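Database export, one record per block. Field names are fixed; values are copied verbatim from the stored entry.
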Amino acid sequence: MDNSDDSVSTLAFEAEPAASLQEGEVPQWLDYEAVVADLADDGVSSPEPFVEGLRTVVADAGDRGLDLKVVYTEAPAAVYTDARDLAALLNQEYEGTILVRTPVFVGSSSDSVPRHRLEAGQDDAWEEFDPVASASVFAHKVTAPAPPWGAYSAVVLVLAIVAVLAFAVALRRRVR
């Protein structure tokens, strides 16, 4: 990158890269101990205006069998992986599924939900700016029933075998 007219790109190349959290490192961009303590009572750590709504989301998720804890912080995470790293760190303190929402980033970690479902939930949750709506979208996405891919695969396999057998029989009759 020699010369760029894009000031954002120029700043990105000139500034020091923002490093993500290292293994076991406590994030410096928020009060980690306060978040851990805040999650203990109701599974929610958030500024006061959002607490009641997030408690409802956590309770609804619990009714659907998801042990969800939600952290919403207005603290600015440096890079997108910080939200996921914070969720993974909190998952060492608490069992279940942890959702972390910052003003810009969404991250999650779980000991029971597969990563691909978490990522799908994060993608949809990121589109909602309101933290309560964001957490609700995430909880619904990760608890939604998956299509029965095994059954679909078995049906397709059986149909393929029947088609091959029918083709072989037709070919054999034509040769006679």
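Remark 1: The helical segments are 7-14, 32-42, 48-63, 81-93, 115-126, 131-143, 149-175.
Remark 2: The beta strands are 44-45, 68-72, 97-101, 106-110.
End of record.
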